[in-house]
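Help! Submission page says 'invalid entity' but I think these are all valid:
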Amino acid sequence: MYKPNKKMGKLIIENRSEIFRPSARTERTPASVTRDILKVIDTPGMISFAGGLPDDSLFPIEDLKNIFETSVSKKGSKLFQYSDTQGHSDLRAWIADRYYPGSSADEILLTSGSQQALDLLSRYFIEEDSPILLERPSYLGAIQVFSSYAPTFIGINYGEEGPDMEELKYVLTNSSEKPKFFYCIPDFQNPSSYSYSLEIRNSISKLLLENGVPILEDTAYRELYFKEELPISLCELGPEHTISIGTFSKTLAPGLRVGWIRAPKKILKDLIIQKQSMDLHSPTLNQELVYGFVSSSKYEEHLSLIRKTYQRKSEHTFNCFQNNFGDSLPLQISKGGLFYWLEFPQEINTDLLFQKCLEKGLAAVPGSSFFVGKPERNHLRWNFSNASEEETKLGVKRLFEVYKSIQK
Amino acid sequence: MYKPNKKMGKLIIENRSEIFRPSARTERTPASVTRDILKVIDTPGMISFAGGLPDDSLFPIEDLKNIFETSVSKKGSKLFQYSDTQGHSDLRAWIADRYYPGSSADEILLTSGSQQALDLLSRYFIEEDSPILLERPSYLGAIQVFSSYAPTFIGINYGEEGPDMEELKYVLTNSSEKPKFFYCIPDFQNPSSYSYSLEIRNSISKLLLENGVPILEDTAYRELYFKEELPISLCELGPEHTISIGTFSKTLAPGLRVGWIRAPKKILKDLIIQKQSMDLHSPTLNQELVYGFVSSSKYEEHLSLIRKTYQRKSEHTFNCFQNNFGDSLPLQISKGGLFYWLEFPQEINTDLLFQKCLEKGLAAVPGSSFFVGKPERNHLRWNFSNASEEETKLGVKRLFEVYKSIQK
């Protein structure tokens, strides 16, 4: 046992309230609702559709075990020593090759999940009060981290084909200060599940280029299509004015915390310096495990399996909603991603619905958390990838009961 | 192969200079010298004493392999799923128990190395122009990350027994604004290798408490004593006004990126929210590997081995310096840590010495990088833990030759 050289007693602190004086940043960083919900889901009997959790029975654990074994035997101590800030060069080359035709490993920076990519890009771009554009609704983890940098949020409504182009044009023409970037999730968005049509992709890339506003494209769900691939990415359309963010959290395993940024080389240089100051580098071993798996022939099989499984789960979820709610909940069957974005009648406040659901052992995320500015309060984000079919059946039934009870 | 739905050509960007408009933060984050040096050390023939790299032949790779095997078999997919922001609860309990008598797992937050801990605490505390206290010299990775938050640095000279208490008292009495914290490395400091005496520890803890200024104590090198343990930590002396930072990078393996913060519970709550916004959580698997090893009976043996090896290497390094430089370089034999802090005569500028060294295939870190305010320019930081004895012999000889050549 470790025994410190304890030669004097502890000092007693009398008034500590003034000792720790946090920055304004601390005050303005909201706790993320989903992370808070993750804490209650361990309550006995609770069924959760709250987190964006992949189905962990699909994690290729045996393969990862074999890769670990082989890699450690081959590369040994290198996997455990300090390494380069930019990250595993073979994995960067693989990412460039697969997702960014014409780009190279030099344009990729590996991060600790896509959340760190969002933080890093916030540091790079945002000054206090900088205007930034983002979709309404948008990913709550992005809203959370952006908030800590105190920008001025400008929300653009996101509909079934993409953002409202008229609104976007109006904002670009009439902002007194040029927005720092447009943050968007064009593929099976979290939370709405909407995607951009090809036409919108073309128009939006052109419009933002003309206005000198860079795009931050978050591609987290792009691989999770059920039948048809999505149209070309914004980054491929306009690689010089688009920064792309990606992650292996949804396609492989989130616990490994491996994500990336693709940016023009000139910008990437500065991003690497920021990353260096943030945590020196992300763990080498985790990048090696990801590389070992994605570069093997098993990755395509694995993606097919995930797509099929999530499609089946989404269809089952859809059927459960149809069976319980009938026409009272307008819902289209999902084409990809992880979520249903439930739209209740205007008079239903899902913040209240959510509280009632928790009491009945059911968790999902109230829509208000996904809006900058004045929130809409009649949505609920429902994850379909994690729960079992049995749990889904029971969960939707519980939701319908709660819905009925507050409707009265 | 992945084939995107490429239905239109790329947009051509004509004037991209105005598109990316980085924040002032980007401008003020300096690239870290050591990380830049890490890039040149792969040049053929280069011998490096620059990084704070542990001896990677000591990494307990076989044990980590076994732990991986056992843990994955036992815990399965949980190790690869999203998990709690605060981190592995058993590892937190182990850290509290070993290093913070009277504290519990609730007061520990796991981070991606201690660099992330420094970033997180910067976010928590620093506003633009906030005065912060730190030692002169201090750890350059801390200076780098603090700089990106634009504080006002107040340096306190660090001598062989600890910081200059008169200077510290003077600053505390005469600052117009109360400093946000005092950042210090009381144990085998990077770069100076100095430690605080027990007397200084007592006085400094008391003085800062009286002045209502919290302490950020960085304990990275605390376990690396060769014979005698260091006196009680500042955190144990004053747990309510001290935040402690630790890491497994020096005692186990830096590539795993596992570090921690110990803070009073009230503060920790807000730190967890910041961490959540930064990267959701650090990788579960890495924390499990660390826990598996440190909680086993092998950890004490391993620490003994590291201490003995580094002591031998430090003695060998010391002898090489004696044999080459004789009395022209004042040097005391090391008692712990990873570095010798070489002090040359005032007329030697180690920034120039460093450049000449690189030309001769030798890397170490010029002292100027470790100073806030006006730098001292006659030191060189020399790592002794990583190079082999043969390399050290050759390296010191090269240094002496370069030194002689610029002295003329």
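Support: the input was valid. A stray whitespace character was the problem, and the output above is from the cleaned input. The radius of gyration of chain A is 23 Å.
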